[in-house]
Specification:
Length: 182
Amino acid sequence: MTDADIKPLDPGQIAPDFTLEDTLTGEVITLSALQGEIVVLNFWSGECPWSRHYDAYFARRAPEWAQNGIRLLHVKSNLNETPDDVRRWAAETENFAPVLDDADGRVALAYGAQTTPHVFLIDTGGRIAYQGAVDDRSFRQREATVNYLDAAIAAVRAHRMPDPASTPAYGCAIVREFYEEA
């Protein structure tokens, strides 16, 4: 399996369930226990400058989202990042959202997460409503002109399907271990 073989789940699909431990608090979180809430699942890396760039955005949005029944969950799937690294980076950014430890990368593979950041918005029924980038920033376009995630959340809260419901994720590749197929 190579990175090219990994495809993100399509909007409308049921979000794969998982149980992961929060690196910051030790709390165990199971996605299916959050059914009925909107969930922002952000595949995150402390060493990726693109992911770190969005830390302030998530820190600003999280309290407002929480007041509106929206849960923010960061998922750390990079093989080369330790729990101590995560705690240090979270302290530097005053990150208060859970950082779930997907040490073996199984959750990232189940979702088809390709980069950090790569966000999946899960609606109250447990379906993926949006997947992709937070906004339209890229290497060539340093300032955002469209915030896809904010628009997707507004659509889901209004009981509409986001448009677009899928965009290419942009950031650093998730560091994985690949195995040769026998």
